[in-house]
Amino acid sequence: MLTIAAARPSPYTFDLPSTALLVIDMQRDFLEPGGFGESLGNDVDQLRRTVAPLAALLADARAVGLTVVHTREGHLPDLSDCPPAKLLRGAPSKRIGDPGPNGRILVRGEYGHDIIDELVPLPGEPVVDKPGKGAFHATDLDALLTARGIRSLLVTGVTTEVCVHTTVREANDRGYECLVLADCVGSYFPEFHRVALDMIAAQGGIFGWVADSAQVRAALPTTPVLQPSS
């Protein structure tokens, strides 16, 4: 068992065979110009600070054989899985399905829908396509994790208060113990990021724990202990 002593609100203990690194929605449409994030008027550079620490954590996790799971938010080309409540909200410069510089926005199979080059999944790492904010809604993520004996999640990705928070809440209801890595999750709004992390760790860890990735990396073994995830 490994322990992250400095985690909030209390030390977080996890076992490598039953833990997965969950990388949520690190897609071009959210992190690069011309995608959905920018169409909502956001500064996509706000999310770029997560890339370097997440890449370092990902390399260490792979080196010890930790299970790694990626998610992508997006919709079928005919948008039949995108409800009007999502498609028609607000007044963005471009809506889901509209053409953009990286293809149709948030549509599966388009260049913008895919994960950024710095964090590209390796062969054998599951990629879960989700139509909603939470990674468990209308996906096989729970079955995938259960089949691998996963009970603890190291949670990373974007955005802190939306897809990350929704996924952590869903995971908590399903009995997973989540450690959210503060420097590996990001928001377009720094204040939302701070408050969202505080909400997770509040009331004795009502949704989970919060720590920095450096603390997890320091706790990982220096030699492989597991077979690579598949």
Question: Could you explain the architecture of this structure?
Answer:
Helix 4 runs parallel beside helix 9 (213-219) and helix 7 (160-173) packs parallel to helix 8. Strand 5 and strand 6 form a beta hairpin. This protein has 9 helices and 10 strands. The model has no long low-confidence stretch (mean pLDDT 96). The longest helix has 16 residues, at 190-205. With 230 residues, the chain is of the alpha/beta class. It has helices at 28-31, 36-39, 45-48, 51-63, 84-87, 141-147, 160-173, 190-205, 213-219, and strands at residues 2-4, 12-14, 19-24, 67-73, 99-100, 103-104, 127-130, 152-158, 177-186, 209-211.
String of helices and strands: EEEHHHHEHEEEHEHEHEH
For the record, give the distance between the C-alpha atoms at the N and C termini, rounded to a whole number: 22 Å
Number of helices: 9
Helix content: 25-40%
What's the β-strand tally? 10
The secondary-structure class comes to alpha/beta
**Measured on Cα atoms, how large is the radius of gyration?**
17 Å
DSSP strand content: 15-25%
Largest sheet: 6 strands, parallel
Tell me the strand order in the biggest sheet.
7-4-3-8-9-10
Low-confidence stretches: none
The outline comes out as: globular
How much is the average pLDDT?
Answer: 96
Question: What's the arrangement of secondary structure elements?
Answer:
Elements: E1 2-4, E2 12-14, E3 19-24, H1 28-31, H2 36-39, H3 45-48, H4 51-63, E4 67-73, H5 84-87, E5 99-100, E6 103-104, E7 127-130, H6 141-147, E8 152-158, H7 160-173, E9 177-186, H8 190-205, E10 209-211, H9 213-219
Parallel strand pairs: 3-4, 3-8, 4-7, 8-9, 9-10
Antiparallel strand pairs: 1-2, 5-6
Helix pairs in contact: 4-9, 7-8
